Batch of 2 targets.
Target 1
Amino acid sequence: MAAIRLQGLRKRFAPDALPALDDVSLSVEAGEVFGIVGRSGAGKSTLIRCVNLLERPDAGTVQVLGQDVLALDDAALRQARRGMGMVFQHFNLHARRTVAENVAFPLEIAGVPRAGRAARVAELLPLVGLEAKRDAYPAQLSGGQKQRVGIARALASKPRILLCDEATSALDPETTAEILALIRDLRARLDLTVLLITHEMGVVKSVCDRVAVMEAGRVIEEGRVFDVFTRPAQPTTRRFVAEVIGHSVPEGTVARLPAARDGEARRLVQVLFAGPNSTRAVVSEASRDFGVDMNIVSGRVDEIAGEPFGVMALAAYGAPDRLEASFAWMRSLGLTVTEIEG
Ligand SMILES: Nc1ncnc2c1ncn2[C@@H]1O[C@H](COP(=O)(O)OP(=O)(O)OP(=O)(O)O)[C@@H](O)[C@H]1O
Ligand SMILES: [Mg+2]
């Protein structure tokens, strides 16, 4: 069963504004970490806020754990919201409350008696590695520790779903990696479904099972992270993927490459190898069958969720139509061929 099912969501903040959400549909399966990636203003926060109805969509349906949340009355909605914890970019902690008091806060709001709150806090702090900080104030914590408090607080009411809006965007890369590892670990231990928003494809690569790419209020691409990384269909997705995968061609190297001969062209491309044809001798086959020359500029092997793929930068020389035909042939094998700028 889908843990979250959104259908035809639309949201416009002003009559003359562009839509923040423009017919968005997606399903998040129970137990998965689902990422939404997009540039600033793409509509990511609006989308995640429509799941717990911090924002109400103008149109569409929102189902959470099989429940139509738009149809709930206030009391039932409060109850449903307890099933969805939310983690924010800027932590949103109470400066005058200790770690333990911050974590207990949602339980206090929900009317849980003091002893029950204390027992739950005692369970939560070890889960996020903060036992030693229970009486510290937020100002005494690092960014990573603050976010651990944010995560413990989000889990206070034992939600089935965790919503993370740029949970690591205020953190350095090392702390980001720790928090992402914690989220994955908690997902497994607590059997959570995680919907995670980010503008960084690196976050998607390290923590998500599936991803949707948003642009201008629409989902433009969606799929398993491995597939989206190795076979991005949309130009925007290719640019996002390139930020992480890169093509590893130093500028000086490009300058030193031989120029094209008269009447021929030089094309610098990145080839991404994944799937059944990834072990074929593509370069020599292309050279032989299309009469082009291919110079391997760089290459490496990377992996996503344990699945390997190769990335290679090629300088290809030959008649323009032959080059084009050789790239088309590579694409027909399921390899991704993209032009490298410069
Ligand atoms: N409360 C609001 N009132 C008016 N406009 C809003 C409101 N919230 C969002 N918007 C607009 O809706 C669009 C989508 O915003 P949203 O915050 O969902 O984007 P985002 O993808 O989360 O961006 P960021 O990466 O910067 O957080 C933007 O044009 C934004 O200005
Ligand atoms: Mg946002």
Target 2
Amino acid sequence: MIAMMNCTKCKTKAVLKLPRHNAAFCKECFNNFTHDQVGRAIRSEDMFRKDDRILVAVSGGKDSLALWDILLTLGYKADALYVNLGIAGYSDRSHENVRRYAETIASPRGATLHTHTVEQDAGAGIKELSLMVHRPTCSTCGMIKRYQFNRIAIEQDYDVMATGHNLDDEAARLLGNVLHWQDDYLAKQSPNLPASLEGFTKKVKPLYRLTERELAAYCVLNRIDYIVDECPMAQGARTLLYKEVLNRLETESPGTKQYFYWGFLEKQSQQASAGASMTEKDQARLHPCPTCGQPTTADICSYCKLIARAKTSIIR
Ligand code: SF4
Ligand SMILES: [Zn+2]
Ligand SMILES: [Zn+2]
């Protein structure tokens, strides 16, 4: 937030300076700017239309709540799903933020909040569950979230799933993929992953044109209460280091993050089938999981395997 500066658009007092756009905005013009950036992302990547049903993945953090708010404000039909991971101290607070937003803002606008509780299905919270199945917490968490979001989207007939990944997230991920030359991941890194296969929902990231700082400002200015703390499991994650490095570059040279990530997207769009998420070989091997019916290339899908291992571990 800044003092003594005027809005680039309307010349009233500005509340936020955006060096990467060489601009400063008052609250109203800043809201218009964020809505415009999201609208441009939706149109340029052909994410969804006004009559599509959207399922937003909400965590209680600034990005996902801002995304839900922006989509509802722009007149989209957006419901949300919250996955309660059962992390002591953190999950209760993040759940409360989501519930409060849903009750006070989303529900009066006709939107629904779905909730999935990991403990109910797996018999343990995410930390204990990961120990039981000898898998890193974040990888178990990622798999469960992907599975549950896809399941609800398919069962409840949503056209598309939207996540709150922002410019910082995508630029950090790109940096990690480039540093390790992860060709497979680079080919799949896109703000629009089409529903290339039967049983998988299309996934989009409408916030890829906005930074973390801009989304935090959006929530503060619009009185959206979000959980400020990162998930305690994120401590020391590589992504945080990449974000720090990119922030240093951004301070020295505003616009670096967007040139890096948007430039990558431009180059990618010049190549055919930029969004293809699976190879033809994977498509041919895909069949419904005999236990739960969701698509998988293995005998039994990884989620059902995880639940089975967790149950054996509890019995022992
Ligand atoms: S930090 Fe790890 S455990 Fe926490 S929400 Fe992210 S992926 Fe899940
Ligand atoms: Zn203004
Ligand atoms: Zn299954």
